[in-house]
Amino acid sequence: MVTALDEALRAACEQRQLDPTGAELIHHYSNAVYLLPAEPAIARIAVGNESPERLRATQIVTSWLSRERGFAATTPLAGVDLVEIDPTTTVTFWTYYPQPTPGQGEPLTSAHLGQLLHDLHLTGWPPTPLQRWTPLESLERALLSTAGSDAISAEERQWITDRVSAVRAELSALDWPLGEGLIHGDAWAGNLMWDTISSPPRAILCDWDRVSWGPREVDLIPTWHAAVRYGRDESWIQDFITHYKYDLRDWSGYQTLLSMRDLAQLPGPLRRASNPPHAAALRQRLDALRSGDRTAIWIAL
How far apart are CA 143 and CA 252, in angstroms? Predict the structure, then answer.
């Protein structure tokens, strides 16, 4: 059965003279990610309120980081602009990095992430205007979506809205010891991959949809949150610290950032709550937050 995503992909490929033959959906969470084996290339389809201007800025930033600054970032397909299918659907095209088969090669870890973020935070201002970091904007959009509306009760929606306001107020009162700069915005280990095009292969950072200008601590909290909510042990944190050279727990704003990251785990399962595993994850996370349980290990999606 041909889906709306399939149709958007074919239309975008036709506009950019790319071959969609054998296209394979390899990931579908915030975006739908297709492999175009005939090119080879990656197509990412953003559906919702993601502005084309922001997606274009993402491509400019990653191209600058990789090609001018030598930073290990995934790169857009050279010379291929994004395609606006309609007001809510935009397709971008990216370099394809074949990944090792499961069990082959070195695993990607917090050590790789710590080094990459250390290097990223030393880069300067990219050659395009950047949106300032806005905490929990993805959650706000998810609450406005049709899927998000159907997944939770009105009372739960109000609780989340109030909690977002409270955490934002706490964040606005913080002093940020690491200062502000270019940040990835969603820097967790799941956004690492191998650049198998380089020799030798190297770890690179992908999924730059949340790239912005903001406090650098925002990029650090996912590593500590992985230990609190997803069962990572102390060595996961220590390996990151070894490479980044900073322990986030020494800062008074640590608990506030953990609260923010907790809430940031709701948009994905909210949007896809019609799928039973996502519905179960949403219920587990929301119930833990509402009960004040700060240590429950969560289902990973």
Answer: 30
